[in-house]
Design a protein that fits this description.
The structure is a single chain. A hairpin with a 2-residue loop joins β4 and β5. The strands form two sheets. Strands 6, 7, 8, 9, 10, 11 and 12 form a seven-stranded parallel β-sheet that branches. Helices cover about 35% and strands about 25% of the residues. It folds into two domains: about 70 residues, Ribosomal Protein L25, Chain P (Beta Barrel); about 160 residues, SPOUT methyltransferase, trefoil knot domain (Alpha/beta knot, 3-Layer(aba) Sandwich), CATH 3.40.1280.10. The protein is α/β, with parallel strands linked by helices.
């Protein structure tokens, strides 16, 4: 069945009223008709299987046949703190991190970044990429794309999580499987930009209790490292089975 998002308020109504871009896509692009079945998501982990009751102008009225919590969301909630890369790498990172099941993506201004996200419109566009990726892969939850923060702020946020790691190309011994305690719910992963982290940034992270880990013998690009680390952590946590 086709998947569509509605806001939380509309999702709780009966029938569910789909409007805006999603309704336009249903009516003008897919040319859906009364009686067709579909699935609606509220972007916060809730789903509803339904049937189109009526189409009225720019709105689609859907009768919810079954409401249920999503089964696509991993138990491990990962926040990916991404050192800001050059365009269009951030687009790809957000799209693929969403597909993997990352909960939140936070752009980070590290010392070696060469690109910036300095306009709110850019964040809105990146959030839209997360929305489209969530819709495509069948997630009922749309990851939040935050406004950029400093490296120090990222470290402070990671200290509040159950576990936190910093993949680092100079690390040789820190195994990812040993860095994750059992039964954790929240995990922070911080990734450097194209030029990597400066040594004092890694030292500051270590002092805050963030564990250095290796992702193998080869140096990964910034757009690869966060995705690999997220996938491996989800696998270790049992969320990729």
């Amino acid at each position: 069945m086709a998947n569509f998002f509605v806001d939380k308020e509309a999702f709780s109504s009966d029938p569910i009223v789909v409007s805006g871009e999603e309704a336009n896509h249903m009516i003008k692009v897919l040319r859906m008709k009364e009686g067709e079945k579909l699935t609606l998501f509220d972007g916060e982990g809730n789903c509803a299987d339904g049937e189109i009751e009526a189409i009225n102008g720019k709105e689609v009225f859907v009768k919810a046949v079954r409401r249920y919590p999503s089964e696509t969301e991993p138990k491990l909630k990962i926040t990916l703190f991404q050192g800001i890369p050059k365009n269009p790498k951030m687009d790809m990172i957000i799209q693929k991190a969403t597909e993997l099941g990352v909960t939140r993506i936070v752009p980070v201004n590290t010392k070696r970044i060469v690109a910036k996200i300095d306009k709110e419109a850019k964040i809105e566009r990146l959030q839209r990429i997360a929305f489209e990726a969530a819709k495509q892969c069948g997630r009922a939850y749309v990851p939040e794309v935050s406004s950029p923060i400093s490296f120090d702020k990222a470290v402070e946020m990671m200290k509040e999580m159950d576990a936190a790691i910093i993949p680092y190309e100079c690390e040789k011994d820190g195994r990812l499987s040993e860095a994750l305690p059992e039964h954790i719910e929240t995990l922070g992963i911080i990734i450097g930009p194209e030029g990597g982290f400066e040594p004092n940034e890694v030292e500051k992270a270590e002092q805050a209790g963030i564990k250095r880990v290796t992702l193998g013998k080869r140096i990964l690009r910034t757009e690869t490292a966060g995705l690999i680390a997220s996938a491996l952590c989800l696998y270790i946590a049992g969320d990729m089975n």
